[in-house]
Input
Amino acid sequence: MTTRAFLYLMITLVIGFVLGMITDRALHLIHKPKMDLGPPEINIIGKIITNLELEPDQVDSIKLVLEDFFSRAESTRTLIMQQAEADLDTLRINLLPYLTP
Output
């Protein structure tokens, strides 16, 4: 096999590889399932209203309970994230003497 033939073969393989990657990525983007569910509180309230066929006063009562729950859950998430950040900062401070020359 001559050098020119080998070079043409390698270029063809590289072009085919690149085109295959681009095509595969495009196909995955086209067939990707859409998972945009929105905020969880909207979905839960909507499902409760439609599935249980509640009366308006029941819907209002359930919305109040769920809104209270979601506000408490959000504050709990915030506290957990703050604690995790504090723990990571402590870890960095404790590891810094061992990692600096």
In short: The mean pLDDT is 82. Helices lie at 3-30, 40-52, 56-99. The two ends are 54 Å apart (CA to CA). The chain is about 85% helix and 0% strand.
